[in-house]
């Protein structure tokens, strides 16, 4: 627990602290790193977009993403995630500066800072370390004997689960939620924003902004367009760093298929 247990600040990550949808950018990076064809990424994105189009809640899309992790070596995913995060930082545009400034303000005054995200530990660990944050509440894919099972330990950290996270942190620390602050960019962050005394909407769509105005919440600018997702380079260095393993987001007919590395552009704007 940080220096001042009387206050806590809860930050959504994608679209709030960072400028892009990290889970999908990581998918693009992993596929390129392991030499997988662009069509695998396109297939998965079509699936997620189709779920959204027919009204599936974000929690369902989140579960579908993690179901495709089944069989992957958790250590390899973590290694690639660290390389991906370093590549994102190198773009110079990974963090959303207004939200990052707020996070530093909370840290400087000794507030307990918590990252609350639908993403998963492999992607959030390097970010939390870079930010100096040691409390991360996120979706937890189940790992058995070092491999992802495709199931989750608990619900996705989306919607009501985020308000539950606020409750758990504040009860454990003896903090009054009314003295806490939360930051989010999506309607699924509403339960978390409603659970604290001070809420900030980062950008947000018209519906979220309307709800914020009715509640007297504060606003931060929305994130700028993210740069193209960084992809690993061709050649021996990439092959040595990321030897071929179980294909990421593959189907049974694809397992064992060897393909060339692709440098095609990836569309990564959808949220999980």
Q: Your description of this structure?
A:
- There is one protein chain.
- This protein has 10 helices and 8 strands.
- With 272 residues, the chain is an alpha/beta fold.
- The protein has a 6-stranded parallel beta sheet, with helices on both faces. A two-stranded antiparallel sheet has the order 4-5.
- β7, α9 and β8 form a beta-alpha-beta unit.
- α4 crosses α6.
Sequence-ordered SSE layout with sheet pairings:
Layout: E1 8-11, H1 22-33, H2 38-53, H3 58-67, H4 74-90, H5 97-108, E2 112-117, H6 121-131, E3 136-138, E4 141-144, E5 147-152, H7 160-173, E6 181-184, H8 190-194, E7 198-202, H9 206-215, E8 218-220, H10 236-241
Parallel strand pairs: 1-2, 1-6, 2-3, 6-7, 7-8
Antiparallel strand pairs: 4-5
- Estimate the global geometry from the Cα principal axes: globular
- CATH fold category name: Rossmann fold
Strand order of the largest sheet: 3-2-1-6-7-8
The main β sheet shows up as: 6 strands, parallel
Helix content: 40-55%
CATH homology-level superfamily: HAD superfamily/HAD-like
Proportion of residues in extended strands: 5-15%
- Structurally, the number of domains stands at 1
Number of strands: 8
- The low-pLDDT segments are 235-266
- H/E order of the elements? EHHHHHEHEEEHEHEHEH
Structural class: alpha/beta
The span between the termini is: 29 Å
Please name the CATH architecture: 3-Layer(aba) Sandwich
Descriptive labels:
272 residues; alpha/beta; Rossmann fold; 6-stranded parallel beta sheet; two-stranded antiparallel sheet; 10 helices; 8 strands; HAD-like_SerB; HAD-like_sf
